[in-house]
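Input/output pair, single chain:
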Amino acid sequence: MNELETSIQPSVPPLGKIIVRDLFTAGRVPLLLLITLFFSAIAVVMTTQMTRDVISQKDQALEQRETLDEEWRNLILEENALSEHSRVQKIATSELDMTRPDSDKEVIVKL
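Output:
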């Protein structure tokens, strides 16, 4: 009877083959939706990362702009300080008739 029972039992097809066959026949639409969902999720992650990178670059550019703006203000102050000396010299020569002494008339004082 053992031989008869084994020949009567139906053969069980592999489950993996059935699932794959069903995915490509009856489940095409859900499979396409699943693939589309996967690529959409990857695109969202990549877009988020690129946005973070751009925001980081923007912050660095703003910091650099602030540094350059501070340097520019310091250069303006330095320019004003240097131009003030020439203004004093110009006023001294034009309004007060002052002149630079000759080198033989200069007196060096040692401390």
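The longest helix spans residues 28-94. The chain has one domain: 14-95.
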